[in-house]
Each structure stands twice: as C-alpha cells, then as structure tokens.
TrEMBL record:
Gene Ontology BP term (one): carbohydrate metabolic process
Subcellular location(s) per record: Secreted, Cell wall
InterPro entries referenced in this protein's UniProt entry, alphabetically: Glyco_hydro_28 (IPR000743), PbH1 (IPR006626), Pectin_lyas_fold (IPR012334), Pectin_lyase_fold/virulence (IPR011050)
Keyword annotations: Cell wall, Cell wall biogenesis/degradation, Glycosidase, Hydrolase, Secreted
Record-given protein name: Exopolygalacturonase
Length: 411
C-alpha cells in the first residue's frame, strides 16, 4: 500500500527541513525535535491497491474514495495515485479536512472515465473535492466525462442535473496543472466557495455542439489564476460568475465555444458582487463571443466592477466585444439591477464575422459607467461590408485608435 521513495524523497525532505529552519529563524515555529516526520518520504496511495481495476468497465468509485480517505487521514506527505490505465468511476466525493501534510497530492496519470449511466449521478458533480486546504493535482492524465448521453437534454430544464466533471468546493490553496479534460456532462471544472486557486496547463476539449460544457466556471471564488491553457467546448471557455474577487485569466487559447465571459450575473436573488478580473493575452478562434459580460433582467442589486479585457486576439469571432444586460428579457421584463462600472476593453484586434462587433447594451435603470474602449482593431472576415459599434445606456470613453469607430451616441 505504501511505497517508500528513494533518494529524491530524502533530498526533498532536506529542502523542507531547510525551509522549516529558515522559518524558525524568522520566528515561525519549527518542529526540529521531530525531524523524522519531515524526513519520512511521501506515502503513495495507489488506487489499484484499493481494488480499483483498469478494465474500462468496473465502477471504481468506492476504490477511489477508500484510497483518498487513507491518503487524507494519513500522517506525513501523501499522494493519491491514479496510475496509467482506464479507470471507470461513478460519483466520487473526496472530502477533507485531511491530517496529511499540506499540500496533499492527487496524481492522475491514467484516464478517469465517467460511469456511462446518467442515473448514477444524484448531485451536480462527477468528482468533487471538498473542504480541503492545500492540494496539488497533476499527472498528465485525462478526465473523460463521456457526456454524449447528457448532451441530448440540451438546455431543457426537465433533464437530470448535469454533473460537473471536477468541482472544487470549499477548497483553499489548490494547484491544478497538466491534466486533460474531455467531453464533460455539464461543465468541465467549477471552483466555488474557495480561496487561492491556481489552474494552469490544462487542456479541455468537447465538441462545439455540446451544450453547457463550459470549460472552467468560477463562482464565490477569490484569488484565482487560470493560465496557459487550451480550451474548446460547446459553451464558454471560461465563465466568471458572481461573488468572485481578484481573478486572473491569462494566456488562454479558446475555441470553439462561446468565448471568455463574465456571467451570467443576476440570475438568483442570493448572488453577490464581482470585483477585480483581468483577462489578458488570450486568443479566441471561431467563437460566438470574445470578451463578453452578460447579466439577467430582474436581478438582485449587485455590482461588477474593475474588469479588464486586455491584449486579446480574435479570429473569425462573431461578437468580439459585447455587454448584454438583457438576458432572459422575455420571461423577466424588469431591467437588470447589476451595476457595471470600471470596465476596460484594451488592445483587442483581429477578425470578426459580424457587422456589429462592438455592442454595449446596458441596463436602463443602472447604466454602465467608466467603460473604456482603447486600441481596438477589428476587420471583417469575408465580404460582410463595413463594421459598426452600437451602444445603449453606457458611459464610455475612448483611447487610441478604434476600428470600427466608437458608437456615435449612447442613449
Ligand atoms: C486567501 O488565501 C490567502 C493565501 O493562502 C490568504 O493569505 C488570505 O488570507 C485568504 N483570504 C481569505 C479571505 O481567507
Ligand atoms: C496569481 O498570479 C499573480 C502573479 O501574476 C500572483 O501574484 C498571485 O499570487 C497568483 N495567485 C494565485 C492564486 O496563484
Ligand atoms: C502579457 O503579454 C505581455 C507581452 O508579451 C507581457 O509583457 C505580459 O507579462 C503578459 N502578461 C500576462 C499576465 O500574461
Ligand atoms: C439591447 O437589447 C435589447 C433586448 O435584447 C434590444 O431590444 C435592443 O435593440 C438592444 N440595443 C442595442 C443598442 O443593441
């Protein structure tokens, strides 16, 4: 069950000890009297030692949960290992808090395949990590939601809940890198009620026609970085929901899909405000939207402020720059009470397939304020004629050159 590592573990342990001593010098308490705990190498909890079988068929959910519990409840450094092979699993809940050293590691080398029967999922998640402080997820493996069975339900409200492939719920100090996600049932990754999350070098792939397969969705999450990833799905590549603070999205290649979106905000009465989002150095290819903010009609009174869309390249994008505060306006006639302010669209260039690539359509009861349009250069892809910008209920200002020109008026 527990493999002891070789010399490398000892080197790492020495480094840890060294850092511990530095911390001691700087006044932080140091466990120098019990160095054996620090010197013990990482314990590996391999799911195949917990009766998981890589036959591409058996439901290994119980084995995964048992291996996690052993890792989480161990003493010292611990790693849950999903080795090479095809492991099918139904609903999996990895719950903390853990006694193992922080951070605990989850290494996915093989393929995790969702159990192929929609009735096996009772909640909103396939794999959920919950109440854990300090976790590293890595390994180069693939998390395959096999969502085809769910996509036929489309946006219908009567279908089963659409399980998210991987949910971070009340998880602090998480790092996820070098993993592949394909064909989720619902979203691919969701981070919620969490602080300090770093997601990088992730590859997410689902068909452009698969509904609700957002790449990464955030809500009630603070201090999140999402970087250096390639995302192509049937919905938003990254969507930033309510209750988010200090978010960086950088160096993402997005497409196909619905683009990089703020929202939808204001659907439910309990939603809270969004503050501090930078989306920078991204490329969108063939998406329906580029830089988008969308809010519902008849929303609670919240704010979304301090938002930067900067240095973004668009290729054949339908709506490169769009604020739409009129979501679901037919069923919810009352205007949106989401106040948008301090919104920046800077250095956005490339090609579009729409005659109106810049649309600012804000709430008439809470107009947008402080919208910056700076250095925008969008050219038509194909013979679609001259381009223009439109605007409604927004106070905006212009810097540098704008192509198409800024809206002439904004009632
Ligand atoms: C969020 O996490 C950071 C880093 O661990 C920590 O410094 C900060 O206090 C946390 N914030 C909250 C509100 O918990
Ligand atoms: C995000 O990146 C910035 C630097 O760009 C860094 O200061 C910050 O600590 C990072 N936050 C997380 C959650 O990794
Ligand atoms: C964005 O790209 C510019 C130019 O390459 C670079 O200077 C800057 O550090 C990048 N920022 C991020 C957060 O990727
Ligand atoms: C704003 O959206 C409303 C509702 O969809 C639509 O009727 C109106 O024409 C739009 N205005 C602009 C300027 O795009």
């Amino acid at each position: 069950m527990v493999n002891s590592g070789g010399g490398r573990g000892t080197v790492e342990a020495c480094l840890v000890l060294g850092i511990a001593c530095l911390l001691a010098l700087s006044g932080v308490q140091c466990d120098l009297l019990h160095p054996h705990r620090r010197l013990a190498s990482e314990a590996v909890f391999d799911i195949t030692k917990f009766e998981a079988v890589a036959d591409g068929n058996t439901d290994n959910a119980i084995a995964l949960i048992r291996a996690w519990k052993a890792a989480c409840n161990s003493i010292g450094a611990a790693k849950l290992l999903i080795p090479r092979g095809q492991f099918v699993a139904g609903e999996v809940l990895f719950t903390g808090p853990c006694t193992a050293n922080k951070p605990i590691t989850i290494e996915i080398q093989g393929d995790l395949l969702a159990y192929d029967d929609p009735s096996a999922y009772t909640g909103g998640a396939w794999i959920m990590l919950e109440k854990v402080d300090g976790v590293v997820l890595k390994g180069g493996g693939t998390i395959n939601g096999r969502g085809q069975q769910f996509w036929k339900y489309g946006k219908s409200k009567d279908g089963p809940p659409l399980p998210v492939s991987f949910v971070f719920q009340t998880v602090n100090n998480a790092r996820m890198s070098n993993l592949n996600f394909v064909d989720s049932m619902g979203f691919h990754i969701k981070v919620t009620d969490s602080n300090n999350t770093d997601i990088r070098n992730i590859n997410i792939r689902a068909p452009g026609k698969s509904p609700n397969t957002d790449g990464i969705h955030l809500s009630s999450a603070i201090n999140v970085n999402i970087t250096d990833s390639i995302i192509g799905t049937g919905d938003d590549c990254v969507s930033i929901g309510h209750g988010t603070y200090n978010i960086l999205v950088a160096r993402i290649i997005c497409g196909p899909g619905h683009g990089l979106s703020v929202g939808s905000l204001g659907k439910r009465p309990t939603e809270t405000s969004l503050k501090g989002l930078t989306i920078i150095n991204c490329t969108l290819v063939g998406t329906t939207n580029g830089a988008r903010i969308k809010t519902y009609h008849a929303s609670p009174r919240i704010q979304a402020t301090h938002i930067y869309f900067q240095d973004i390249v668009m290729e054949k994008v339908k709506n490169p720059i769009v604020i739409d505060q009129h979501y679901d306006s037919k069923r919810r006639p009352e205007q949106s009470s989401v106040k948008l302010s301090d919104i920046h669209f800077r250095n956005i260039r490339g090609s579009t397939i729409s005659k109106i690539p810049v649309k600012l359509n804000c709430s008439s009861i809470f107009p947008c304020e402080g919208v910056e349009l700076a250095n925008i250069n969008l050219i038509p892809f194909g013979p679609i004629g001259p381009l223009k910008s439109t605007c409604s209920s927004a106070k905006f200002f212009v810097k540098g050159k704008l192509n198409p020109p800024a809206p002439t008026a904004c009632a």
